[in-house]
Amino acid sequence: MQLKRTLQTGLAAAAGIAAALALATPAQAEEVIILINRGNIPTTAADFENQSCDNLPDLAADEDGWVFVLPASAGAEGNFISVTATYADETGTERTRTTGDDGGIVEGSGDNKAYIITPAGWTLLDADALVNDPDEDAFFNLTHACAGTPGEEPSSPGEEPSSPTEESSSPGEESSVPGEESTSPTGTTLPTTGTPLTIAIVSAAALAAAGAALFLVQRRRREAQDW
Q1: Which residues have C-beta within 8 Å of that of residue 50, sequence separation ≥ 6?
Q2: Residue 56 near residue 65, CB atoms below 8 Å
Q3: How, if at all, do strands 139-146 and 31-36 pair?
Q4: Residue 206's pLDDT is what?
Q5: Structurally, how many domains does the chain consist of?
Q6: Domain membership of residue 73 as a residue range
Q7: pLDDT at 224
Q8: Region Disordered: what ranges (predicted)?
Q9: Within a domain: residue 138?
Q10: Per the domain annotation, does 125 fall within a domain?
Q11: 3-class SS at 196?
């Protein structure tokens, strides 16, 4: 009987100790994904109403900085664990950026901010965040943006130089027609074709025959004188 009472007392004490330990150990916070305030999207950094480069590292001129805040109204414990954002680049292609690879969690400043850096000109389409034990329907906000200047795209090869027809005049414009560059030779030229050529040939033959006859006459006269 005494042994039974001792066992009951021991079990009761163990149960009490276990209950005390359970109460003393805080429950592990649950990690939950919450969404960005739907009124903040879609937007480019340049179009967002709050412009500031606070809570950001030094940015290049062609980069945009995006700073997110976890408000107290979200009821979450601690800061962001991570933020993942979806953007559209200048061609409309969707791109995903995260605080782990493209940004970070801000230390200090209320310990409730995170940032992401993108090329300038991208449009924020959506974002979600992993946080500890938030209230139901909790959300976070885009608090400010630091807008850069998109880099200029190079023009296509066909647009850089002017076309050959624009750079120089056509051959017909650079020099005059050969017949206009020099005048025809002075003086009279012999005809080259047709009836005039025939007349010229006959005239030449007649002159040659007359010359031969005159030569024979003069030769005979000299022979007669020698006799």
Answers
A1: 143, 144, 145
A2: yes
A3: parallel
A4: 67
A5: 1
A6: 26-146
A7: 57
A8: 145-194
A9: yes
A10: yes
A11: helix
Q: Is the pLDDT of residue 55 over 70?
A: yes
Q: Does the residue 97 lie in any domain?
A: yes
Please give the backbone phi and psi of residue 163, each rounded to the nearest 5 degrees, phi first: -70, 155
Q: Which tens digit of pLDDT belongs to each residue from 187-218?
A: 444 444 555 555 656 566 667 766 766 766 56
Phi and psi for 216 in degrees, rounded to 5? -65, -40
Q: What is the pLDDT of residues 112-126, one digit of tens each?
A: 999 999 999 999 999
Q: Please report, for residues 92, 134, 137, 169, 186, the alpha-carbon distance to residue 79 in angstroms, rounded to integers and kept in the order given.
A: 32, 11, 17, 71, 104
Residue 176 domain flag: no
127 vs 117: CA distance, rounded Å: 14
**Phi, then psi, of 10 in degrees rounded to 5:** -65, -40
Per the structure block, which two tokens stand in for 3?
A: 């042994």
For residues 24-47, b (16+ Cβ closer than 10 Å) or e, as one string?
eeeeeeeebebebeeebbebbbee
219 is written with which tokens?
């030769």
Sign for the CA dihedral angle at 168, 169, 170, 174 comes to: negative
